[in-house]
Amino acid sequence: MTVKVAILGFGTVGEGVYRTIQTHESELEALLGKKVEVAAVLIKNNQKERKIAKDVLITTDFNEIINLSQLDIVVDAIVGKDPAFNYLKQAIERGCHIITANKEMFAHHGKELLDLAEEHQVSIGFEATVAGGVPIIQTLRQLLKVNRVQQIQGIVNGTSNFILTEMREKKQSFADALKLAQEKGFAEADPTNDVEGFDAFYKLMVLSRVAFGNAPNWKAVERVGITSITSDLIETADQLGFRFKHVVSIQKEGDKLIGSVRPVLVSKSHPFYHVEGVENAVNVFSDIVGRITLQGPGAGMFPTASAVIEDLVYVSQSNQQNKLQTNPVIEVLPLAAGSVNNFWLISGVSKTELSPSIHPVDQVSDQTFIVETTDEEILQKAKEFPSLSYYPILDGTQILQNKKEYLTVTI
């Protein structure tokens, strides 16, 4: 008995999957009781030389793959919504299990694919769509058997995390840190998806679907990138004992979901404080186990391939246990939902412009302050002053409460 696999795309992820299947052949056979073989690879450029065995079908035509006499699993390592979505639909309709590392496609079409997979009695693996080598999807599946997840926070884009780390550690400008990320292959020539938060946003949609059975209305989730963060702000945060991190967050409050993708500040007490470089981390809070944090490499050939191979084992052994929970429609609110006081680092306005609604806890410079106020007040002030930048401080309550005790009223 043999499991026949097709790999769609042979870039970093596709090649990593192929090489891992070759190097872990005996482990996979021991786990599954069957040999796993790559039957076909879909490529874009048939002029490029690749290190693929001669008995593997290498083609630019998906029809040749879908019409193979035996095809058990299709691995999607393509970038973008199309044509990946169309290919995976055809694979499911043929009766193949599918595995995808394509977060943009799955964020847009995951529910449709899951419904189609249920109809055709096949399974879908999508661990590699979020945080590369961090097994958050499988962890959530296990937690959800008993626990009720209430909040997820994550650093899920290694490029942005690398840039912020370089800016702080090497005192670099955003432009210089981005250039280094591009030279190292962490960022694309067009880095918009990473630095403006789109990549993280897609991953948040996937996490939300798994944890809460619903994906928010995309327009209701605040998405802010890291391009507004200057070297001065990085240094100010460092002096105050905080670090900038680009964090996705979604939490359930009653029958509402509150989601955001934005830069935040964390102190040494927060598990994200020491997540540096291209590392990813996801923090999950649930009603029984409490808070758990998973950390690991967020991208790269073999971390992502690891997630795909784990899914290969999962879908091969699954008996339709991968159906996600389905909850009633949940109202999804943006940042402005909160009315509780929180601490913020804000920049770009004077103390006079803050008054009378917002009073600083600390004045860092002429136009940079720490304030304690509500989400609504911050958003209202941002409407009044488009130059205002604001960054929530996730866990600085005790630090800043102590600071309030000795600050003078002259700030």
TrEMBL record:
Q: Which InterPro entries match?
A: Asp/hSer_DH_NAD-bd, HDH_cat, HDH_CS, NAD(P)-bd_dom_sf
Recorded hits in Gene3D superfamilies, A to Z, give: Dihydrodipicolinate Reductase, domain 2 (3.30.360.10), NAD(P)-binding Rossmann-like Domain (3.40.50.720)
Family matches, as SUPFAM superfamilies? Glyceraldehyde-3-phosphate dehydrogenase-like, C-terminal domain, NAD(P)-binding Rossmann-fold domains
State the reactions this protein catalyses: L-homoserine + NADP(+) = L-aspartate 4-semialdehyde + NADPH + H(+)
Protein name listed in UniProt: Homoserine dehydrogenase
Lineage of the source organism?
Bacteria, Bacillati, Bacillota, Bacilli, Bacillales
Q: Where is the Homoserine dehydrogenase catalytic domain?
A: 135-313
- State the organism named in the record: Bacillus salipaludis
So what EC number does this one have?
1.1.1.3
Provide the GO biological process annotations: methionine biosynthetic process; threonine biosynthetic process
Pathway the protein contributes to? Amino-acid biosynthesis; L-threonine biosynthesis; L-threonine from L-aspartate: step 3/5; Amino-acid biosynthesis; L-methionine biosynthesis via de novo pathway; L-homoserine from L-aspartate: step 3/3
Q: Which GO terms describe its molecular function?
A: homoserine dehydrogenase activity; NADP binding
Q: Aspartate/homoserine dehydrogenase NAD-binding domain location, by residue?
A: 9-127
Q: Which family does it belong to?
A: Belongs to the homoserine dehydrogenase family.
Report TM segments. Answer: none
Q: Which UniProt keywords apply?
A: Amino-acid biosynthesis, Methionine biosynthesis, NADP, Oxidoreductase, Sodium, Threonine biosynthesis
Pfam families the record matches: Homoserine_dh, NAD_binding_3
